[in-house]
Amino acid sequence: MTASRIYYDIVPSPIGPLMLVADDDGLREVRFELDYRPQTPLDGWLHAPDKLAQVRMQLEEYFAGERVEFDLKLNMLGTDFQKDVWQALVTIPYGVTTSYGEISRQINRPKASRAVGAANGRNPVPVIVPCHRVIGSNGTLTGFGGGLAAKQWLLEHEAQRFSLR
Fold it and tell me: What residues are labeled active site?
């Protein structure tokens, strides 16, 4: 069995440059400058903007306020629990926020809000899988791989666009 080729591109965004990482099975990661994952390609990765053109276009549409849902093939690597959390994140409507407790109840793990928070923090494709829409139960912003300023920007962007729909 041969290893899958890894493709990357770095695209500009209003919240800073985003590194897109994919393989032939789909988008694997979106990395921020402030992310725990560096924005440096690993040996063997291929700079392939053409392979990531659809991702780039949908992100540009989102940031322009023209897209509220993404339609991309994803290949997110994680545990079964993490994948359950990430699947729940996709159900959070544009312009709406929820809490870690709500997500834990949604996946039938009502006492797992801390574990939900950890899985949320390991979401490999933020913005596209909207982990930024999860806030503290008291309404405060909580951690975000791109930094709290980016999270605030995303929430305000969606709230503004949501009110126009």
Answer: 131
**Are the beta carbons of 151 and 134 closer than 8 angstroms?**
no
Domain that holds residue 114: 80-164
Instruction: Indicate the number of domains in the chain.
Output: 2
How far apart are the C-alpha atoms of 38 and 157, rounded to whole Å?
26
Give the per-residue pLDDT at 2.
54
pTM: 0.90
- If asked whether residues 90 and 160 sit together in one domain, one would say yes
Q: What is the pLDDT of residues 101-121, one digit of tens each?
A: 999 999 999 888 889 989 998
Cα(50)–Cα(7) distance, integer angstroms: 10
Specify burial of residue 138 (Cβ count, 10 A radius: 0-12, 13-18, 19+): exposed
Residue 83's SS3 state is: helix
Does some domain include residue 68?
no
Q: Determine contact, residues 154/127, Cβ cutoff 8 Å.
A: yes
Cβ-contact 119, 82 below 8 angstroms: yes
Burial 38-74 (b: 16+ CB within 10 A, else e): ebebeeeeeeeeebbeebbebbeebbeeebeebeeeb
Residues 111, 145 within the same domain: yes
